[in-house]
Q: What sequence folds into this?
């Protein structure tokens, strides 16, 4: 098993980690967009968007089926790109930290403008969780905000954003959220 070294003995180790990080983040962007575009995937991803009071706990609100499908889809990518354990660990750590931050209620103030140039911030991701159908089909990036700019899905808004889904207002228990993909009331995704 190959483990990436970032020592001076292997000068391309750091380059491989950076390229792996970019590839994994691009995959996350494309996977997230697919979850909005395809009805079957949206049924499970809607659980993540069901939170009407978005906060740091929203970062972990995913249906187990969505997580399973994402893992299975990503495995061949990891193998084909030769992503090392080190690179995967670095990316997953950054993903968890940034995801918790951009789902939080933290206001970055003047620092937000600088931070969002590089990373997904709460002001960017809040728009993505909007109830407004004109706003939810944007800001799919997970760690680096560059993907939304590159694929023209970047959007900011002024003023407060209401979060959640009308189809999930009465589904607050774990049991009701796990059952929700099997109901016929999912009409949202990328149009």
A:
């Amino acid at each position: 098993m190959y483990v990436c070294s970032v020592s001076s003995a292997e000068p391309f180790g750091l380059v491989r980690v950076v390229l792996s990080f970019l590839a994994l983040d691009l995959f996350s962007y494309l996977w997230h967009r697919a979850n909005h575009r395809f009805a079957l995937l949206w049924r499970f991803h809607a659980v993540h968007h069901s939170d009407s009071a978005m906060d740091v706990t929203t970062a972990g609100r995913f249906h187990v089926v969505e997580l399973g499908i994402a893992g299975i889809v990503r495995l061949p990518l990891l193998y084909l790109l030769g992503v090392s354990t080190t690179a995967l660990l670095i990316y997953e750590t950054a993903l968890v930290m940034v995801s918790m931050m951009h789902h939080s209620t933290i206001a970055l103030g003047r620092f937000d403008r600088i931070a969002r140039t590089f990373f997904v911030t709460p002001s960017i991701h809040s728009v993505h969780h909007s109830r407004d159908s004109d706003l939810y089909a944007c800001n799919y990036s997970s760690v680096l905000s560059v993907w939304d700019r590159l694929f023209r899905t970047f959007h900011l808004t002024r003023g407060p954003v209401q979060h959640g889904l009308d189809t999930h207002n009465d589904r607050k228990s774990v049991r009701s959220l796990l059952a929700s993909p099997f109901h016929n009331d999912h009409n949202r995704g990328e149009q």
User: Anything to note?
Assistant: The two ends are 42 Å apart (CA to CA). DSSP finds eight helices and no strands in the chain. The chain has a mean pLDDT of 82.
